[in-house]
Amino acid sequence: MAEATSHEILSFSHEGRVFPPPPEFQKKAHIRSLEEYRALYAEAANDPDAFWGARAREELYWKTPFHTVLDWKPPHAQWFLGGTTNLCYNALDRHLPKYAEKTAILFEGEPGDVRKITYRQLHADVCRLANGLKSLGVKKGDRVGIYLPMVPEAAVAMLACARIGAVHSVVFGGFSSEAVRERMNDAGAKVLLTADGGWRKGGVVPLKANVDAALPHMPSVEKVVVLQRTKNPIQLGPKDVAWEKLVEAQSPTCEPEWVDSEHPLFILYTSGSTGKPKGVLHTTAGYAVYVSLTTRWVFDLKDDDVYWCTADVGWVTGHSYVVYGPLMNHATSFLYEGAPTTPGPDRFWDNIERHKVTILYTAPTAIRAFMRTGDEHPKKHDMRSLRLLGTVGEPINPEAWMWYRDVIGGGRCPIVDTWWQTETGGILVSPLPGATPTKPGSATLPLPGIFLKVLGKDGKEVPPGQGGKLFLAKPWPALLRTVYGDPERYVKTYFSEVPGLYFTGDGARIDADGYLWVMGRVDDVVNVAGHRLGTAEVESALVSEGRVAEAAVVGRPDELKGTALVAFVTLKKGVESSAELKAQLSAHVIKEIGAIARPDEIRFADALPKTRSGKIMRRLLRDVAAGVRTTGDTTTLEDLNVLAKLRGDEE
Ligand code: ATP
Ligand code: MG
């Protein structure tokens, strides 16, 4: 395998195309071989306490050392007991002796404004806001809401909370007034940090107006701190404080609050693909250790990298891999405020070219949207600075994976397809880019310390290649600790399917090489005439035909087959829908998977319903396919019109 070039396709296994790590990349990587990975994996398996204890001492500065690595009383885990630390100190202060003048945050606003914030400046900004929050009465353990655009102050706000032991709860800036109200009330936030607005698609998202509408219905919120982002005048109400005023008089130093390992760090509401969002609670030390370590393992960070994770700080990916992970690794994290299509469809590629981005981490939904608009846009730009690509959020169709690799990565960059969840805090399954041969569509192997189990209906482990429910057999440091305010929901959702095992909610199979293939949510895995089909695989078959941009496949109750397959399909630019195309798509699925996967119905659509984080909401499509009205929660849906159009109850 060592001699193979990145263009060669190896017959690594019985299944799929295999790409070894590109030799140029591999030479300089932190972890360079599967053997090294396997040794780490074995170390973690043989003595988890010794493994995590050593990692915790390496990754963090501890004010007080911990005396116990793990206290595991299923379903409750506590990590690094007796220790005290501070995540903000680990992300900033620790680096000042060596990296004070290094750019911590490189920011570009949608209008094109650029800011470079060094570690020294970021530290001072964070301390000022931390002192400002204290002056408003925020104390250790108080909850602070953050509803900001994707500007550096969003990171400053999170870090300031962590510095004083306040618990942040970030609400994605694209969410509505109702969503803010619901989340702030659930969290009992004392202070809410917002901005007058943020730039998106050339317009201003009215954040302050949304907060104003919610404020009378958020009794716990005592103060609203308002950042001036646009030049529009701001009307300050009785509870409002101008951000600039609040920080201007504050000292640029602030002693960090040394908190217990298990002190709550943040509450983050899940994206709501499957139902009502859950307030996922993460605590300090376990989260910090795990996120710091996985950032280096998965992204193979080097001192001169310009790292860009395109996620908004409103999602867990933004928490772990825009803010905390990169900063704990003294990296340069690039933040971009606006839409990928403003002013033109090449904005991302333009950003990469101008800022010489070296690592790009984005979502399959974005990649499919870029594929749909055509190769000419990325091809206009010199993106040779890129050396590593990543994806997260949904299964990536092999077709999109190949496009990402060839058109964006120039065939030269390894791809890390990272499987994880809000609840897992950090990446659990991913290639190590210098070590793991990749297969398009597979998240590959579990990271050291992560133990996967795929169980069948009978609760027994299924043989390789067979689908089942995905569980995690042992706790890891960044496992959520509870659902905020609803401890029963924690037990019920994650630990009641099989007592003692964490249930992911995903369906998956593990192939003969030990590679993970996520089939979709268990609710999305359909049973057709006795065969279990992963919707992700049927969707990938449709996309691989070449003319389909995106596909979502769901089951509809059927008297004969039990379940019939309905495919919702959007087409690439310039492709016309026709009955003939439907027949050709069906034939293609039969060729790729077999007659069992042939869609019973194909419906062309302009767009698919998605969460605001860009995930296809199949539970809504199931209702559409079955012709019933949706009764579930739709507050996280991106565009209600999409749903209306699919149902045909508009116009
Ligand atoms: P909710 O839990 O509220 O229904 P959600 O599950 O979409 O929302 P997240 O925590 O953001 O909220 O998403 C985690 C889920 O995303 C995983 O369980 C999985 O289904 C999917 N996912 C994430 N990354 C990948 C990946 N690389 N491959 C396949 N699926 C992925
Ligand atoms: Mg989930």
Secondary structure elements and pairings:
Layout: H1 23-28, H2 34-46, H3 48-59, E1 68-73, E2 76-81, E3 84-85, H4 87-91, H5 96-99, E4 103-108, E5 114-118, H6 119-135, E6 143-147, H7 152-164, E7 167-170, H8 177-187, E8 191-195, E9 198-200, E10 203-205, H9 207-214, E11 223-227, E12 240-242, H10 243-248, E13 259-260, E14 264-269, E15 279-283, H11 284-299, E16 306-309, H12 316-328, E17 332-336, H13 347-355, E18 359-362, H14 364-373, H15 376-379, E19 388-392, H16 398-408, E20 415-418, E21 452-455, E22 468-472, E23 482-483, H17 487-495, E24 502-510, E25 516-521, E26 526-528, E27 531-533, H18 535-543, E28 548-558, E29 562-571, H19 579-592, E30 601-604, H20 618-626, H21 640-647
Helix pairs in contact: 2-3, 6-7, 8-9, 11-12, 14-16
The site of adenosine-5'-triphosphate has 25 residues, from strand 20, strand 24 and strand 25.
Shape: globular
Number of helices: 21
**Main beta sheet, described?**
7 strands, mixed
- Give the DSSP E fraction (strand runs of 2 or more residues): 15-25%
Beta strands, count: 30
Task: Give the rounded overall mean pLDDT.
Answer: 93
Determine the structural class based on helices, strands and strand pairing: alpha/beta
Q: Which cofactor or ligand species appear?
A: adenosine-5'-triphosphate, magnesium ion
How many separate structural domains?
3
CATH topology of the largest domain, by name, is Rossmann fold
What would CATH call the architecture of the largest domain? 3-Layer(aba) Sandwich
Distance between termini? 59 Å
Please, what is the CATH homologous superfamily of the largest domain?
A: ANL, N-terminal domain
How much helicity do the residues have? 25-40%
Oligomer: single chain
* Spans where pLDDT lies below 50 across 5 or more residues: 1-14
CATH structural class of the largest domain: Alpha Beta
* Cα-based radius of gyration, to the nearest Å: 24 Å
As laid out across the biggest beta sheet, the strand order is: 5-4-17-16-18-19-20
